[in-house]
Description:
- The complex is a heterodimer of chains A (about 400) and B (about 100).
- By secondary structure, chain A is an alpha/beta fold.
- Chain A folds into two domains: about 5-245, Thiamin diphosphate (ThDP)-binding fold, Pyr/PP domains (Rossmann fold, 3-Layer(aba) Sandwich), CATH 3.40.50; about 255-385, 3-Layer(aba) Sandwich (Rossmann fold), CATH 3.40.50.
- Helix content of chain A is about 40%, strand content about 20%.
- Chain A has 13 helices and 15 strands.
- Chain A has helices spanning about 10-20, 35-45, 60-70, 85-90, 90-100, 125, 140-155, 185-190, 215-245, 270-285, 305-310, 330-340, 365-380, and strands at about 5-10, 25-30, 55, 75-80, 105-110, 135, 165-170, 175-180, 255, 265-270, 290-295, 295-300, 315-320, 350-355, 385.
- A seven-stranded mixed beta sheet of chain A has the order 3-2-4-5-7-6-12, sandwiched between helices. In chain A, strands 9-11-10-13-14-15 form a six-stranded mixed beta sheet, sandwiched between helices.
- The longest helix of chain A is centred in the middle third of the chain and has 33 residues, at about 215-245.
- Chain A starts with a strand and ends in a 5-residue tail after the last strand.
- Chain B is α+β, with helices and mostly antiparallel strands.
- Chain B is built from two helices and four strands; from the N terminus they run E-H-E-E-H-E.
- Chains A and B meet through helix 9 of A and loops of B.
Amino acid sequence: MTTQRIGIEVSRAIAIAAKLANVDVVSAYPITPQTHIVEDIAELVADGELDAAYIPVESEHSAMSACLGASAVGARTFTATAGQGLELMHEVLYIASSMRLPVVMTVANRALSAPLSIWCDHSDVMAVRDTGWIQIFAANGQETFDNVLCAFRIAEDQRVLLPVMIHLDGFYLTHMVEPIYVPEQSKVDKFLPPYEYPLPLDPNKPITMGAFAPPNIYTETKKAQQANLTAAKEVILQCWREFGNFFGRYYSPVEGYRCEKAKVLLLVMGSLSETAMSAIDTLRDEGKEVGLIKLRLWRPFPFDEIRRAVRDAEVLIILDRALSFGGPAGPVCSEIRSALYNEDKKPKVISFVGGLGGRDISPDGFKEIINRGIEISQTGSEQEFEMFGVRE
Amino acid sequence: MTKPEGELTWKDLEIGSIITEPGNASQYQTGGWRTQRRIYDTNRCIKCGICYIFCPEGCIEQTAEGYFDANLFYCKGCGICARECWPQAITMVEEEE
Lengths: 392, 97
């Protein structure tokens, strides 16, 4: 079998990526809009197409806990969740990263209750921002598929050994049928060889994981974790370069679209960047000097790349798909503003929050956001940030 | 562990702070938690060993004479031995006394 481009639902492509990655253990609990991913993997295992242990559990807390156990003995481990499920595994997420267990998880981004919403936004992602996982946002199906393969290689790199989340927008990507290049197994095997965890649980060589740390050592453990996650960026960049050399598609932490001489930049994450590209095209056709920045790497945060990408702009408009209630701006905007604050040359940063709970933003919507952002940059706003598209 | 825990830098730690030396919890002085210390009267002790059985820390050992001494490096001063000792050979006093 050679590389094929097949029309396939993105969730099913993720299951194929997990199979191509030869995962050993999958433990998951089904939740909309992640279900198709884990259902497909369960089927692949049941049909004997994937030689893995599929552990059905009673909750996401248990799903992640089972993944930790599997990863601790050196198994290649995968799971997927969404929204409330991600919240239910919250405390275990910290343990995965603190114990340096390279679990890979796709998150079908979903709004948090209440009121109950199964549709997409990034409130689930932002709540797990500080869990110490490497976090990558995908803008389309191919990016998702490719980054699932990259995620294993990054996570299992001996210099990293950290868990990785791949974020894809619920429904907008999970349920989208896209033409996706699926590489042949032999090529994936070369890109992603089997790995060995350096200190696995082994009765013949007893170790203690997740032990107790009194005040005289806890700070050192956290410093080690911070240094480790920050240093992972170099490995991520290297992995993306090598992925490009293998498969011909190159990724970067921050990607610009039509940014040449742009005075105004729009920054988004996830699938909305595809829609925003259409809006930028129209505005460029009208002669406006606007460009788009897609933020792909969320943790570790790509400080240098962001600073370089926006340095020459006058206005940077950031659309967050999550609210920080009572806070200064959308969560992404807060971080970027903070990253730019001490720079001598920086744009004005304008924050919008929109696309909550599956509310669409059309290309015309993005034009409105950009025009309003320019207006605020000149006249100011009475609010710290504005919610786009809300009925007053 | 080559250095005492309090002298380790973040670079000295194993990945994920994994502990590779089995049983090194014995180096942890849980006696530092104590606010009360036990006073043991061997004249009242009948060597029944109930304190040994009940001690949740496992810090009580039998001596060559058959009495039961607590290792104060580990004893947290919980007072369970004093509560269970029915001949009342053990009493608890404040550490500062």
